[in-house]
Amino acid sequence: MTPDEFRQHGYQVIDWIADYLQHVERYPVLSQVAPGAIRAQLPAAPPATGEPFDAILRDVDEIIMPGITHWQSPNFFAFFPSNNSGPSILGDLLSSGLGVQGMLWATSPACTELETHVLD
User: Which CATH class name applies to 3-119?
Assistant: First the structure.
């Protein structure tokens, strides 16, 4: 994936997430699928070549979303909707983009010192 393709698809994913969070109450809180229904829709083997990004997002909408419990829904009263927020999603994106390995101070001083500071 080129940097330009990454940028284009990244914008698509951010837009997808923003739309999801804006309309999460439209989904049934609990998944409506039977056990095994998601896996039955997946190919037996990975594709030999990459798929267009639009096809991946379509699979998310058509295969993955029916099997999601929507913890962020304002209609979900079982536990509490605290799994994510806009800022936490952006923080995850930055962390993933940097690929930080925070096992030890030597593997990433910034990660270790920031984590220690926040936890203190």
Answer: mainly alpha
Q: Which two tokens stand for residue 40?
A: 């039955």
Burial track 41-75 (b if 16+ CB lie within 10 A, e otherwise): eeeeeeeeeeeeeeeebeeeeebeeeebebebbee
Each residue's pLDDT tens digit, 51-83: 999 999 999 999 999 999 998 888 887 766 667
Counting Cα atoms < 13 Å in the Cβ hemisphere of 43 gives 6
Amino acid at 108: S
Query: DSSP code of 23?
Result: T
Domain boundaries along the sequence of the chain: 3-119
- Please give the angle made by the CA atoms of 80, 83 and 89, to the nearest 5 degrees: 150
Q: How many residues can be counted in the chain?
A: 120
